[in-house]
From TrEMBL:
UniProt keyword annotation of Calcium present: no
Name of this protein: Integrase/recombinase XerD
All copies of domain Tyr recombinase, residue ranges: 130-310
InterPro entries the UniProt entry points to: CB (IPR044068), DNA_brk_join_enz (IPR011010), Integrase-like_cat_sf (IPR013762), Integrase_catalytic (IPR002104), Integrase_recombinase_N (IPR010998), Tyrosine_recombinase_XerCD (IPR050090)
PANTHER family for the chain: PHAGE INTEGRASE-RELATED (PTHR30349), TYROSINE RECOMBINASE XERC (PTHR30349:SF77)
UniProt entry keywords in alphabetical sequence: Cell cycle, Cell division, Chromosome partition, Cytoplasm, DNA integration, DNA recombination, DNA-binding
Source domain of life: Bacteria
Source organism per UniProt: Lysinibacillus parviboronicapiens
Main localization category: cytoplasm
Length: 324
C-alpha cells in the first residue's frame, strides 16, 4: 500500500510534535490520521467530490494559501461528517478537535503563517463520564491467584505487582530496563518523556527478586536490556501485556468485564486513595500533569461518600424543643 504524501506544513507540524512537544510516536500517528482525514474531507467538500472515495484523495498539493481560506464553518462541517457519516464517538471527535486546535495554533503562533485561527472557537464535544472499572481487594486477590504456575509465573506475577502497587501505564512497564532500578527506586519514563522516580515497596522487591532468580529468558534484542523479557527473548509490547491480563482474568475465574492493564492502574489508584493517600502524592506516583486527571482515577463509591458525611463531627441532630 502506497504511503500517503503529506503537505510540507503538515510534516513540519508532526516533527514539531515529537521533537519539541515530546509527544509519542503513537500520538503523532493519531494526529497524522486526523489531519489527513480533515484535509481529504475539505478538498472533497470544496470540489464536490464523492466522499465514498475519500481515501483516494491526494493532499500533498495543499498550499498555505488554501489553508488560510479555511473557516470555523468548514471545521463544523468536518465534525458533522465525523459524527453522522463516520459515526465517531464523542471521545473520537474530541481527539479530532484537539488535533485541529493544535495544528492551527502551531501555524499561527509558531509559524506566523495565518492571521486568524479558525479553530479558536471550535468546541470540544461533551464526553459522558463512564464509571471506571476497577477491582476491589477480594477481586484483586482472586486475579493474582489466577496466575498459572509455570516457568513464566514469577515474571507475570512481578508485572502484575508493578501494575497494582505502582499504578504504572502499560507503555511505561514495557519500556522499563534493568537499569531503571536503583536500589529500591524505579525510574519511569512517562508521557512526553517526563521522568519520575517511584519507590518500590516490599511486595515489588520480593516479586522482583523471585523473578530475577527464576532463570528468566535471555534478551535477544539490541539496545538496553528490558526489565521484563518475553518467552521469545524480546521486549514486551502493549498488545502482549493486554493479552496476558486477559488470560489471567479468565484463568482466575474472575471474568471481570473489560479488565485491561489500564484498569489495573485504576485499581491501584483507587486502592491507594482508599488507604489514605492524598491526591497530590497520587498525582506524582501516577505521573499525571493535571490533578483533575488523578481525580478521575480515584473512584469512590457513593456509599463511602455517604459514610464520610454520616461520620462528620458536625452531624449532630438537635433535639426539638418540647411543646409548652
Amino acid at each position: 500500500m502506497q504511503k500517503t504524501q503529506l503537505p510540507k506544513i503538515m510534516k513540519d507540524f508532526l516533527v514539531y510534535l515529537t521533537t519539541i512537544k515530546g509527544k509519542s510516536q503513537r500520538t503523532r500517528k493519531e494526529y497524522e490520521y486526523d489531519l489527513t482525514l480533515f484535509f481529504r474531507f475539505h478538498m472533497a467538500a470544496q470540489n464536490d467530490m464523492d466522499l465514498t472515495e475519500i481515501t483516494k484523495i491526494n493532499i500533498d498539493t495543499i498550499t498555505i494559501e488554501e489553508i488560510r481560506e479555511i473557516t470555523l464553518e468548514d471545521l463544523y462541517l468536518f465534525m458533522e461528517y465525523c459524527e453522522v457519516q463516520r459515526q465517531n464517538s464523542a471521545s473520537a471527535r474530541a481527539r479530532k478537535v484537539a488535533t485541529l486546535k493544535s495544528f492551527f495554533k502551531y501555524i499561527k503562533g509558531k509559524r506566523r503563517l495565518i492571521e486568524e485561527n479558525p479553530a479558536d472557537e471550535l468546541e470540544t464535544p461533551k464526553i459522558a463520564r463512564r464509571k471506571p472499572v476497577y477491582m476491589n481487594m477480594e477481586e484483586a486477590s482472586q486475579f493474582i491467584d489466577g496466575i498459572q504456575l509455570n516457568r513464566a509465573s514469577p515474571r507475570n506475577y512481578c508485572m502484575m505487582m508493578f501494575f497494582l502497587n505502582l499504578g504504572i501505564r502499560v507503555t511505561e512497564l514495557c519500556q522499563l530496563n534493568k537499569a531503571s532500578i536503583q536500589g529500591r527506586y524505579l525510574t519511569v519514563i512517562g508521557k512526553g518523556n517526563k521522568e519520575r522516580t517511584v519507590y518500590l515497596n516490599d511486595s515489588c522487591m520480593q516479586a522482583l527478586a523471585d523473578y530475577e532468580q527464576s532463570g528468566k529468558t535471555a534478551y535477544r534484542g539490541e539496545g538496553d536490556e528490558p526489565l521484563f523479557v518475553s518467552q521469545k527473548g524480546t521486549r514486551f509490547t502493549r498488545q502482549t501485556v493486554a493479552k496476558l491480563v486477559k488470560q489471567i482474568n479468565k484463568q482466575s475465574g474472575l471474568q471481570k468485564e473489560r479488565l485491561t492493564p489500564h484498569k489495573l492502574r485504576h485499581t491501584s489508584a483507587t486502592m491507594m486513595y482508599k488507604a489514605g493517600a492524598d491526591i497530590r502524592s497520587l498525582q506524582h506516583i501516577l505521573g499525571h500533569s493535571s490533578v483533575a486527571t488523578t481525580q478521575i482515577y480515584t473512584h469512590i463509591e457513593d456509599e463511602e461518600l455517604q459514610h464520610v458525611l454520616e461520620n462528620n463531627p458536625f452531624n449532630i441532630v438537635r433535639e426539638s424543643d418540647s411543646p409548652v
